[in-house]
Structures are given as C-alpha cells and as structure tokens.
Amino acid sequence: MTMGQRRPLVAGNWKMNGLRASAAELGKIIQGCDALSQTDLLVCPPATLVMMFVSAAHDSQVAIGGQDCHAEPAGAFTGDISAEMLADAGATAVIVGHSERRTYHGESDGMVRAKALAAGRAGLMAIVCVGETRDQRASGRTLDVIGAQLAGSLPSAVVPEGVVVAYEPVWAIGTGLTPTPADVAEVHGFIRARLVGRFGEAGEEIRVLYGGSVKPSNAAELLTIANVDGALVGGASLKADDFLGIASVYA
Fold first, then answer.
1. The whole model's pTM is what?
2. Catalytic pick from 84, 100, 168, 205?
3. DSSP string covering 179-199
4. In this structure, how many other beta carbons lie within 10 angstroms of the beta carbon of residue 35?
5. Has 188 been annotated as catalytic?
6. Within the chain, which residues score under 50 in pLDDT?
7. pLDDT single digits (tens) 9-47
8. Which pLDDT score, from 0 to 100, does residue 2 have?
C-alpha cells in the first residue's frame, strides 16, 4: 500500500497553550480547510477546551482530540482524565507517549501501551509517539531506540484506523532543527517494515506521521517523503495560517 491509498492526516498538538479565546483560531482553521477534503485534520487542544472545540467544529471536517489519557477508565487518580472522558466530550483521538510525557512524566513504553489500549477501549484513535534524543542519534542508536519503543508501546493487536504512529525526533521538537529528508525516509521506512513485520497487511494501512519543527516552509519537502502519511504539528498548529499552510501540501 502506498501513501496514495493511506489518507493523509495532519494533527495539531497545542500542548499547554490555549484559552477560550483560542476558539477564534480554530474557527479560521475550519473556514480555511475547504480545499483539503482528501485530508484528515485533527486539533488536540488542552483538555479544558476539548468540549468547546468539539461544539465549534461540529459539522466541519476538523476532528478534535486529547493530548493524553489515563490507562484506567475511572478511579482515584486526581487530575487525570480517562479516554472514556475524552470520548464523552466528543473527542475522536488522543496522543499517547509524546516525548514530553515520556521525559517530564517518566512514561515508559509499557505505560504508553496501556494508554493506547485505553484509547481503543474508548473508541478513540491512538496517536502513538516514538523518537530518539540527540545523544541516541549521535551514538548511532536511532533505529534500535525506535524499534524498542514500537515493540513496547504498540498493542499486540491493532485496527489500522485505530492506531497512528508519529515519529518525532526529540532533538527536533521546538528547536527549529529538522532531520534531512534521507534521515526521515530511513526512519519511516524502518517503522513501516516493523509494522508490516508485526501486523502483516494491517501494518501497510497504519499511518505514520512525521513531527518535529514542521512548518509551512519545510512541509512540502517533509510530507512527500515515502512512508510519511502526514504530520504531527506542534507550535505551528497554534496559528491557523501555519497549520493550513502545512496541510495544503495535500490540497
């Protein structure tokens, strides 16, 4: 299966940014996506805005997702939000295992896998993030690290429409640095081979996104690489013009 058969996905991770007034930016994204009918668009705002954004995006082609979820459906976990709660608020997807969660919250591959399973349990698409640090790349361990993350973070059985893999080289997130197209092609080809090796035909259908300092100026170069099926966009997703500029690669 080629990218032509895998529907592109451009997802925006707003991280810890956004107040109610940010709905205006979402409105601009909704208004500007008419030419992108062949592309899935997803905005993942802070949890405080999910329900409001779902309401604002109703009857549009923009879906709304969460940035994290707890592995359990409910319980005494103060401050946490379950996948079921996100689904109840109208979200259709959730990011799990982002490098910032792995780094700042000490999330292991096993924890990420449990969250991906929770997403599936709640009927949400899980965007499972993998990626190497600068030191790991410098020491030539990129593929070993990503292989281990894939093995430990993905559920043992997947439904292609229920799981997306996002490759985000940690050293490229928010730094303005990006890997070369050859680097991206190597890693995405490796991820595809691992997915097919583990899941067979379903592994051909799972979308693999690139993330890490994606912006309108480099989107065309990055998103047309083999086995790159879209983008997980950080900072640039906070501005409608930038987010749409990235997605317009698929117009």
1. 0.96
2. 168
3. --HHHHHHHHHHHHHHHHHHH
4. 12
5. no
6. 3
7. 999 999 999 999 999 999 999 999 988 999 999 999 999
8. 54
CA angle 234, 240, 124 (to 5 degrees): 55
Count Cβ atoms below 10 Å from residue 151 Cβ, excluding itself: 12
Transcribe the chain into DSSP letters: --TTTSPPEEEEE--S---GGGHHHHHHHHHT-TT-TTSEEEEE--HHHHHHHHHHTTTSSEEEEES--BSSSSSS-TT--BHHHHHHTT--EEEES-HHHHHHS---HHHHHHHHHHHHHTTPEEEEEE---HHHHHTT-HHHHHHHHHHHHS-SS--GGGEEEEE--GGGTTTS----HHHHHHHHHHHHHHHHHHHTHHHHHSEEEEESS--HHHHHHHHTSTT--EEEESGGGGSHHHHHHHHGGG-
| Digit-coded pLDDT (tens) for 185-217 | 999 999 999 999 999 999 999 999 999 899 999
The residue assigned the tokens 């439904």 is 159
Of the candidates 116, 150, 115, the residue with the CA atom closest to the CA atom of residue 132: 150
168 catalytic, yes or no?
A: yes
Task: Give the Cα separation of 148 and 238 in Å (integer).
Answer: 32
Beta-bridge mates of residue 95: 127
Q: Both tokens of residue 172?
A: 């490229």
**Catalytic residue selected from 98, 107, 188, 205:** 98
